[in-house]
Amino acid sequence: MEPQLSHTVAEGVATVVIDHPAKRNAMTAAMWRALPPLLTELAADPSVRALVLTGAGETFCAGADISSLGAFAEGGDAPQRLAVLAEEALAAFPRPTLAAVRGACVGGGAQLAAACDLRFAEEGSRFGVTPAKLGIVYPASSTARLAALTGPATAKYLLFSGELIGTERALRCGLVDEVLPAGGLAARVAAFTSVLAARSPLTQAAAKEFVAGRTDRIAHWEDEARRSTDAAEGVAAFLERRTPHFTWTPASTGE
Description:
alpha/beta; three-stranded mixed β-sheet; Enoyl-CoA_hydra_C; Enoyl-CoA hydratase; Enoyl-CoA_Hydratase/Isomerase; Enoyl-CoA_hydra/iso
């Protein structure tokens, strides 16, 4: 089977699978290029309320497929630029995103996981940011995102050494949000994303921008809150002891 990004949408959750088992799900040039348009397609689907990024089998992603570097050159794009474009598209996805990690999450895999809003990992997974092993300058935006997650000291440890860390340290430093026992990842991800899909998309969309430090759209979100019926529905559902049915959708694609 050719390396690919496959995806499904079910019960409000889009699942994108990095599928290249012959190379431990390493990302080829074609896969890096395919991710931004796929995310644009999924963002345009109003039924998608959350997105999960994971790897096929027992590995999340071992990084970039070094053997495909020639394809990068043929496409006219530097490898780093393609990876950063994919990372930024993932970070900009308008709904909550979650990386479900098993096994190796290294190099470009860690770059993609860090671009997700949340990261759940199975015990035994390994994380590493490895440009120092190849003499590569890690992108400034990726470095800043890593440092925001882990703090400067851990970011330096990972970037200076290229060493891998386990789930215990990844949890402790903030690189992952939950660690699940072997065999428990899929069920926990399914349960948690069903919660995400049931919550107010208005609250989530505004929070995502505010947490990212964006302050130029405060008035926009105030207008959206006034236009929305989500708050009234949430209060009514609470008083009536029922599950709320939130219906907010953005008035426009935004900026």
